[in-house]
Amino acid sequence: TITFCLVAFEQVRADGQRHLERLTVDQRSGMFVPAFTSEPLKESQNPKHLLLSIHGAGSSADGAYRELAKVVQEEDIKDCLLIAPQFNSTEGFGAIPCIPYLVTWRNGWWRYGSRSSTYVDDSGDFHRAGIATFEVLDRIVDSFLSKDDSRLESVLFFGFSAGGQLIQRYALFGAQVDNPANVRVEFSYFVSSPSS
How far is 102 from 129, CA to CA, in rounded Å? Predict the structure, then answer.
């Protein structure tokens, strides 16, 4: 099960177009991945279409969200929920400060579906996290499929650059979504500039 709650980062503020969420990907440890969404997830209606946008290396979920939101607006797509998770690296361009329970990957290895490297708890102690990027995506999708009143008809993954690499690998090797037998959901994968 994945839970959603707000996270406050000083660098980014939610506005009327997007919401900054904290996707708790492991209940036991409290590990989380930040994400931008088109509506608060606790208040989320039951969408027919789930759109996930994955950023490139050295870029952000904010940019990935904004690009997909433009397309949704231009194409007048209705009854959808946009989610753009942020996969953070521990070093190099795009490295982030140590925020308690934030899941991080070494050298951008998130693009390979790899397991995360570490997270820091409230005491400042480092822990090996060990959650794969593929698992994060699975848990996001599962959280909507597992609803008793799920109306989900389609899940669309969009990835640019390193995000495109992740989506290619996820489509071929990683997707382990628990789709109940009575739910028919179409999965689509859109890749842009993966250089792979």
Answer: 10
Backbone angles phi and psi of 138, in degrees to 5: -60, -45
Structure tokens at 45: 């209606």
The per-residue pLDDT for 52 is 96
Q: At 64, which helix (H) or strand (E)?
A: helix 61-74
- Interacting residues of 167 by C-beta distance below 8 A, sequence separation 6+: 54, 157, 158, 159, 189, 190, 191, 194
Q: What is the DSSP letter of 90?
A: S
**Whole-prediction pTM value?**
0.84
Q: Give yes or no for residue 154 having a pLDDT over 90.
A: yes
* CB 117 within 8 Å of CB 104: yes
CA 80 centroid distance within chain: 15
Identity of the residue numbered 101: Y
What is the spatial distance between Cα 26 and Cα 122, in angstroms, rounded to a whole number? 16
